[in-house]
Amino acid sequence: MTRYLNRWQLGIPILLALQIIVLLAMGRPAICTCGTIRFWENSPLSPETSQQLFDWYTFSHLVHGFLFYGAIRLIFRRRITVWQALLIAMGVEIGWEILENTPWVIEAYRQQALAQGYVGDSTINSVFDTFSMMAGFAVARFIPVWVSIVLVLLLEFSAAYAIHDNLTLNVLNFIHPIDAITQWQSEIQPAP
């Protein structure tokens, strides 16, 4: 059984290495083009958003982890191991991280009020987005469903309050911009 689990666990660094290789091959910078690595970028309007290790959009990636855990468990009904479920979640997250950094998606994001200066993610930010999803996945595994729901709502409302954006608003505006949301997001002022 240990050998079986280790085989699936080996998929984690393999997928992360694949993510890094593909992003670098796409021309994504390894770190922020500003030349520094910082733990947190607070302003959603900063050119360093999606460039540093964490920012307000980290909350969305944590939510991804909760949602992926729930969806995979619902679909597979515990017929797969947690390691297999995690690899599926990582595959989806890494696939999104790669797609998100294509010129088409970057340009689509630039149409949103908060992302007009968006240039895509640095590779290190993208990898830490994947780590954040993994953290959300791990937490969801060990807590009751109702606590997961409360945490997802708390993360979504916290980001909405702080930066006028979250996963829900991001998806809505990506699919079809809503004037009222765009107006509300336009009220965010750049950090001094």
Describe this protein's structure.
This protein has 192 residues and is mainly α. Helices cover 65% and strands 2% of the residues. Helix 3 packs antiparallel against helix 7. The radius of gyration is 17 Å and the shape is globular. The model has no long low-confidence stretch (mean pLDDT 91).
Topology:
Layout: H1 2-9, H2 11-25, E1 40-41, E2 54-55, H3 58-76, H4 82-100, H5 103-110, H6 123-142, H7 145-163, H8 167-175, H9 179-186
Parallel strand pairs: 1-2
InterPro entries: DUF2585
Keywords: Cell membrane, Membrane, Transmembrane, Transmembrane helix
Protein name: DUF2585 family protein
- Structural class estimated from helices and strands: mainly alpha
Instruction: Tell me about the largest β-sheet.
Output: 2 strands, parallel
Strand content: under 5%
Low-pLDDT sequence parts = none
Termini gap? 56 Å
Strand order across the largest sheet: 1-2
Order of helices and strands: HHEEHHHHHHH
Overall morphology: globular
Q: What count of structural domains?
A: 1
Beta strand count:
2
Helix amount, in percent? 55-70%
Mean pLDDT: 91
Quickly count the helices.
9
Radius of gyration: 17 Å
Transmembrane segments: 56-76, 142-163
Protein name: DUF2585 family protein
Pfam families: DUF2585
Organism: Dongia sedimenti
At a glance:
It comes from Dongia sedimenti. The chain is mainly α and 192 residues long. 65% of the residues lie in helices and 2% in strands.
Core attributes:
single chain; 192 residues; mainly alpha; two-stranded parallel sheet; 65% helix; globular
